[in-house]
Structure formats: structure tokens, C-alpha cells
Amino acid sequence: MKLKTHLFQDLMTWLKEHFGNPETLMTLVWIVVKIVLIYIIARICIKIADKTISHMVAAREKSPLKFDKRRSDTIGKLIHNLIAYTVNLVAIMLILGQVGLNLGPLLAGAGVLGLAIGFGAQSLVKDVITGFFIIFEDQFGVGDVIQIDQFKGTVEEIGIRVTRIKSWTGEVHIIPNGNIKQVTNFSTYNSIAIVDVAISYESDIDRTLSVLKEVVGHIHEHTNKIVKEPEVLGVQMLGTSELKIRVIAECLPNTQGEVGRIMNAQIKKQLDAYGIEVPYPRVVNYMKSDRGEGA
């Protein structure tokens, strides 16, 4: 009991010595105020960051590219956590500095550790940063047909570290985001299907053009992948045994192959129906007579 009383008296004496001084009390109050201000500013920074992230995600969802909402929400949460951790870490360090803790050794140790991790994970950091830029710049989205270097296919997944694309023959290519230097996106805007129709020199060009305009108009009415009526541009090339007439059609993104096949089939049927001849290789033989014969 005497020991407890003695400890209590010592505590009261220490409080009187330290907090009985007005200057010490003001210093303590100012430290508390600064800690509170640091905390409030940190919360405000996180709130502003959340508003900015939400605005960016909403803008990406209105873009013409296909954008996976679940992926955008995931990325938004990841960025929120990254910013929150960074702001909170800075706030904690500032608060520790206010209470008199020497942060020099701690910062030095953290710098050495960060430097070691940075050297060991350069490619990983590069992949992650590139992945963020791919998603937020809408370079391509899930379901788009793209080409990266020699790999062409449909995007199956855009990860933070890798991108997966599936070729039309079934192979799945897994490409680290840091290795993506140039991307060709075939799904952003409408495509153009180009068909060159070959006819023989003996065919009537004006009649052929009229037939082609009729058939492409019919194709446009019965094919929902063509966005506007195809155009018959005219004679594109004079070949050794044929004329080539070019027909173009604006179609939905990445459907030019399918539309081109449809147009080829329908044009061939219509040319046959009107008796317009499609050229084919011809061989002409000349018989050379022997001058010495009968001499």
C-alpha cells in the first residue's frame, strides 16, 4: 500500500513539474493540434482521391471501347488502397515526428529496403505500371481483336501484369504488359471490306457496273453487318487477261472478312445469272511453218 501511495505521489509531482509550466502546456497543446490537422488533411486527401477515381472510372465506362465494369471496379479499389496506404504512411511518419521520434534511421532503412526491392523487381513494376496505363487509357478492352507484334487475336483478359489474347486458331498468348510496345486495335472503329471483281475484256463494263450496284444494294438490305450501302468504285486495274472492278463496304468492326465472303458469293451468283464472264487463264498456240518444206 505504501508503494502504491509513493508511486502516485511521484506521478503527481511529475505532472506538476511538466504541465504546471504554461509554456510546456502550450507546446503540448500545439503538438496535439498539429497531429489533429495532419489526420484531417490525410482524410481529405483520401476523399479527393476517391472522387477522382470514381470520375475516371465513370468516364471510361462511357468510352466507345468495351470496358469490363468488374475490372474497372477492381482497379479503382486497388488505386484507392494504394493511395490510402501511402497517405496514411506519410501521416503516421509526420505524427511520429511531432512526438519527438527520430525518423532518420527509419527512413534510411526503408530507403535501402525499397532500393533492393526495386532492383529485384524492375520487370514486375514495369508490367504493373503498363497494365494501369492500358486500362485507364482504353488502349483496348476485353473482347477486342488486337495485334501485338506478331500475335493477333481476341483479348480474353487484361491483368495488372499480363494480357491474354486468343488467336482464331485457338492458341492463347500470354504477354507481359511491360513487353507491349505497339498495339493495333481492329475493334474500335468500323472496318472496310474490299472486293475486287475480275471480268474479261469482252464483257460490257457499263452493264457489269449496273449489275454490281444492284447486287450490293441487295446485300446491304439483307446483311446487318454492313452499316451503309456498299460503293462500286469502278475499274481498279487493267490486267493481262482481265479487268478488276473494286467494290467497298463499310461494316461493323472486324467483320470485313465475313462481309467480303458474302459479297464474293452473291456477286458471283449475279454475274452468272446475267451471263457476265469471269476470266480464266487462256493459252494460244501458234504453229510455226517450216520454211524449208517443199523446197
UniProtKB/TrEMBL annotation:
TM segment ranges: 25-46, 78-100, 106-125
Coiled coil location: none
UniProt entry keywords in alphabetical sequence: Cell membrane, Membrane, Transmembrane, Transmembrane helix
Pfam families, per the entry: MS_channel_1st, MS_channel_2nd, MS_channel_3rd
Record GO cellular component, one term: plasma membrane
Family: Belongs to the MscS (TC 1.A.23) family.
Protein purpose: May play a role in resistance to osmotic downshock.
Protein name per Swiss-Prot or TrEMBL: Mechanosensitive ion channel family protein
Source organism of the structure: Paenibacillus whitsoniae
